[in-house]
């Protein structure tokens, strides 16, 4: 009988998981891994065994209740664990605020503190708390660990985290935190030293400037609304525009929040979909403009982070769009030619690990996102 650790990664459009063996000292083989993606469009479940063979696949034709899908997934995993013994579950939790700068054991107090951060991550915090609570009921007493997206960015210098607001707000925790930290931590373990910009392009999207593997700047801020244009989130915007809309349309704060998190970004601009696959398949002008805006803003923010780093040695693409969409990588890199970024078109089309041309002064690579690896490791450390 083997002992197993599970990792759950609740994202805004997907739930990913991994189940790995452990001898207590190291993480061993991944017994199962999988994902439920397209949660807001057409959910698709795929689970793979240790050899990478698909052992379960299901599709839903339309958006399905999140709790129902989560129960189905947890039930499936629970049925397939026996006769082995699950000894811990690690979870991705998006916001740790100023309270959590390292992984923690989850108890009632931790749940209360994580829940208290919901206004800072309204799209994500409830998605992390749902499986934590469900597993607490399913397996009371099982060790659960929270691993925070914000924690990786604790190395950012104060000047990168500070906002130009009256001083007292910084003392109250109003500052840049940054997210996708578990993904960037994985990337930091995979890339050489030097000046790296990692582009995590999923339903949520951000860039991180890494100096010798440490975060020194990132595009997301106090919340996961800042920075790039995302599936349904606006990204950076003049705060004056928000004040104007709120005042002239007499909108409530809850209504504004809903618009900025759920109705904006690729969905809002295209009027068609938050899913990049739908946009690239469409000839409609608004869909093309949404894609153009997505690419433009990645290039613009890459320029800003290159200035934070004082140059650029390596550019990494990761997550759903970053790993799978050659056309987006190509358009981004065309805009970055002034920084010495040049792609090898064939390597890019094949999604090779290294996609830069020999003439490129910047090494451009694809690193598959593996937040689960970091969660498994951090959970083992807490065991
Ligand atoms: N093969 C693919 N599988 C999943 N998502 C893909 C794929 N190719 C492109 N994508 C795009 O990636 C995005 C979702 O990325 P993902 O990293 O799974 O999101 P998140 O973790 O933020 O929920 C969607 O816009 C989707 O269109
Ligand atoms: C922080 C964030 O935006 O995460 P995701 O990409 O999973 O939505
Ligand atoms: Mg994700």
UniProtKB/TrEMBL annotation:
Cofactor(s) for this UniProt protein: Mg(2+); Mn(2+)
Cofactor comment text: Mg(2+). Can also accept Mn(2+).
Positions of Mg(2+) binding: 9, 371
PROSITE patterns, per the entry: ACETATE_KINASE_2
Site feature Transition state stabilizer, where: 180, 233
Active site: 149
Main location: cytoplasm
Oligomeric and partner information: Homodimer.
Function of the protein: Catalyzes the formation of acetyl phosphate from acetate and ATP. Can also catalyze the reverse reaction.
Protein name per its UniProtKB record: Acetate kinase
Native organism: Endobacter medicaginis
Gene: ackA
